[in-house]
């Protein structure tokens, strides 16, 4: 089955830029979606189809995807961005939806 | 727009039926999924049901034990869970696909399932 690999944790200072990676075999050929998940809340779609932003998501959130790595970039990080972030793809071979293991973003 | 219910405590080997009521659009017009999160773990996709319930897909971990279905007149989605195991413990979310498919843009708040061994 298809595997997506994320770093378990990332720490950044307020105002800095956070880059969360999602690695997978030729993931650049797939559409990658990103979710923000805060404890006790429902996950929130922040980027879909590699780089599209749903309505209401700040422009500080952006995405890219090439070759074997997709990246979620959050500029001018705020305390409210502290959350777990997950990448997700649709694996055409199995037709399964696949999540990465998640990255815990800590704002220092 | 999505509200799950039906979670609770059940013994290993037992069964449970989760419900997800959708407000607004008809459940038949969208693809829906169930996603779960075990305590201290990440998100795991569990099941998929197509528009008009013509097609279902399951994660290997639940295939043969879980069944996803829709009820159009109740505008609801269900997850029938049988032969439950301790590793099925977690928060279960229903999630709707975007119109373009494959990403989940609407989520419920989740319902907790605890399987005691």
Number of helices of chain A: 0
Describe the largest sheet of chain B: 7 strands, mixed
Q: Can you give the mean pLDDT of chain B?
A: 96
Radius of gyration of CA atoms of chain B, rounded to a whole number = 13 Å
Low-confidence sequence ranges of chain B? none
User: How far is the first residue's CA from the last residue's CA of chain A?
Assistant: 36 Å
Taken in chain order, the helices and strands of chain A follow as: EEEEEEEEE
Number of strands of chain B: 11
Helix residue percentage of chain A: under 10%
Q: Which outline of chain A best applies?
A: globular
> Can you tell me the overall shape of chain B?
globular
Our estimate of the beta-strand percent of chain A is: over 45%
The main pleated sheet of chain A reads as: 6 strands, mixed
Helix content of chain B: under 10%
Number of strands of chain A: 9
Beta content of chain B comes to over 45%
Task: Give a brief description.
The complex is a heterodimer of chains A (108) and B (117). Chain A is an all-beta fold and 108 residues long.
How do the helices and strands line up, and which of them pair or pack?
The complex is a heterodimer of chains A (108) and B (117).
Chain A: E1 9-12, E2 18-23, E3 33-37, E4 44-47, E5 61-66, E6 69-74, E7 83-91, E8 96-99, E9 103-107
Parallel strand pairs in A: 1-9
Antiparallel strand pairs in A: 2-6, 3-4, 3-7, 5-6, 7-8, 7-9
Chain B: E1 2-5, E2 8-11, E3 16-22, E4 32-37, E5 43-49, E6 56-58, E7 66-71, E8 76-81, E9 90-97, E10 104-107, E11 111-116
Parallel strand pairs in B: 2-11
Antiparallel strand pairs in B: 1-3, 3-8, 4-5, 4-9, 5-6, 7-8, 9-10, 9-11
